[in-house]
Amino acid sequence: MIKNSILLSELTPEQLKELVGSSVKSQLNDFKKSLGNLHSNDELFSREEACKFLKIDLSTLWHWTQKGKVTAYAISSRRYYKRCELLEALKPLKK
Predict the structure, then answer these.
(1) pLDDT tens digit sequence for 25-39
(2) 35 and 20, same structural domain?
(3) How far is the C-alpha of 25 from the C-alpha of 61, rounded, in Å?
(4) What torsion do the CA atoms of 7, 12, 14, 15 make, to the nearest 10 degrees?
(5) Is there a domain that residue 6 lies in?
(6) What is the pLDDT, as a whole number, of residue 29?
């Protein structure tokens, strides 16, 4: 007797094709969702977008960047902030 074998009885080739196709499609959708979650955390914000996201003033963002609380990334003369790093910079208050 062979273990790890699959017996398909009363299954037409079209039904098998549909079964395999739906399984592969489901796995691809799950993979696509997981990739989407990874990329959404790497979203880059401009200075204005970062301030709006954190609900702070531009001068506060500048001070936080100078103190190393948040990291700025540059492309030419423009500054960008990673969304995931802005979220990591937030600290819970101790009660």
Answers:
(1) 888 888 777 766 655
(2) yes
(3) 44
(4) -60
(5) no
(6) 81
- Do the beta carbons of residue 89 and residue 61 sit within 8 Å? no
In terms of domains, do 38 and 67 share one?
no
Range of the domain at 50: 43-89
For the whole model, what pTM was predicted?
0.56
Q: Would 94 be classed as within a structural domain?
A: no
Total count of domains within the chain: 2
67 in any annotated domain: yes
Residue 82 to residue 42: CA distance in whole angstroms: 6
Q: How many angstroms separate the CA atoms of 63 and 73, rounded? A: 15
CA 21, distance to chain mean position in Å, is 27
Q: What is the DSSP-derived secondary structure letter of residue 10? A: S
Cβ-proximal residues to 19 (8 Å cutoff; 6+ apart), any chain: 11
* Lowest mean per-residue pLDDT among 34-38, 42-46, 48-52: 34-38
Place of tokens 């959708």: 29
